[in-house]
Amino acid sequence: MTPVQKIARLEAVLARILARAGSRPPLGATRGEALALRQTGEPEKVTQAHSESLGATEIDPSVLAPTESRPTDEATRAGVRGASSETDIKWSSLPPAPAPAPDFIDGSANAFDGADAMEASVPVETASSVSAADAVRADDRAVSVVPLRGVESIPPSDPPAPSELEFGTEETGLAQEFEASHPSDQPPDSSRRLLGPDPEEQIARIAFGKETEQPPCHTPPPESGRMLAGSDSDLELELGTKSSFDPFEARVDDHADDDEDASSAPTSTRLVVLETRASIPSDGDVAEVIGSLPRHSPETFLQALRSSMSL
Amino acid sequence: MPSASTPDSSAHLTLRSRAPYNLLPGAMAVPTFDSIHAVRFDLPHGAVHAKGDPERCVVVPSAALDSLIRDSSPEAAELFGRAWGSAIGKRLASRLEDAESATLDDFVTQFAGEAAISGIGTVALERWGRALVVVIGGSPLSDSTMESLVAAAVEAACGLRPVCAAVSRDGETSRIFAGTQVSVDRLRAYLGSGLSWADAIARLHQGAS
After folding, report:
1. For chain A, what is the domain count?
2. Contact status, residue A144 vs residue A27, Cβ threshold 8 Å
3. A311, B205: Cβ pair inside 8 Å?
4. In terms of domains, do A66 and A125 share one?
5. Contact residues, chain B, for A311 at CB < 8 Å
6. pLDDT tens readout for residues B193-209
7. Domain that holds residue A17
8. Rounded to 5 degrees, what angle do the CA atoms A167, A170, A172 make?
9. Structure ipTM
10. Tens digits of per-residue pLDDT, A101-136?
């Protein structure tokens, strides 16, 4: 397996984890909220907050288990200090044994160290996190994950329990370890096809939060059927007998050729007329007749004679 | 002399001819000339009389008149023409019940009848704008004689004395403008400068009020 493929597999795992984490409310908010309420001595609110969080979304015990399996006294005293503005995700020595979800509320010894468990950026503002902001500071939200976009996701399955995973520094080594631990998940090379962008760019985007424009993965195939015949100018362009039209450039080229080699054959310059026509509407009332033709129609001969004698 | 053909520059002037119409009898009141006993030949007395004129008339060959007018002075020729025209005008006035209220058709009809009896040719009227032009066709007389003849005839018929000037001669057809001395002088000046008679008449309208 090439390093690129390994990185791609690693990205797939990462995307799967992020997708599963993003489908749930931020655990850090509800958990930090509960810890804060517990410190203030309001068990009713603690129970209420927890019930609201549970009622809003379903919490997968497999996801919650690692977070509460590392109680820390420091976290108990100071609550949860989660940096909510970074994207780095760090898991360290997470025990694989799952635990029941409601247990993390009971006992002050099961304090949650959000900074040690998961750190994610771009928090998702859910109903539970917004309601908990009144009692708990926003910084107490330890985990808030946004599902990534444009990453190929693999159908969810049981998360692997690696002994140690480090993201961001040794991707290649982790990929090898992951490949060794899960040889059955690897499809044959012939059936794998990279649908996403360049893995290096994608990792850089995940790690540093850069948003780079991704080129389209696929281009549609040309339409079948009859093809339109090209014009003479297109044929000349294809044959190289005619360059792209620019009268000014053509003149400049002619002078340049004269300077370089006066004895060379003269370059045939084809000038094309650039027409600029005015659009004058023809349906307007252009002519305007004012008054009527004065008619001199004397009734009698005497009037006609007098009129003629008045000239 | 300017040609009788109508130039393009005078296209804005409308020709209104008063030649005799070939209309169906009884369709409308068409003025007619009563030619019955218009000339009376008194054979026993060897006299010729025109209807409505007690004076005697003489049937004279046109060649004799031409030689007479040619050998005479212009003033004499003018007087000859005025005398002849005055006689025609008197007969014309006798035929018109009211010369002042006579229409153009009535006037030109009676005028043409009297001219035909006299043997001076055909008479028609043209109006180029406000200018009144008398068209004489087939006349044995010269243009200068016809100028005085037409002026005297009109004066004798309706009381106004116009000053006439021949503006064109196309074969046997002469056009005589009827106006004032001032307008006739201007018209002759225009004709002398090389303008055609139609342009001259059109130019005559530019200075008119």
Report:
1. 2
2. no
3. yes
4. yes
5. 130-131, 179-180, 183, 204-205, 208
6. 999 999 999 999 986 65
7. 1-23+148-213
8. 110
9. 0.77
10. 444 444 444 444 444 444 444 444 444 444 444 444
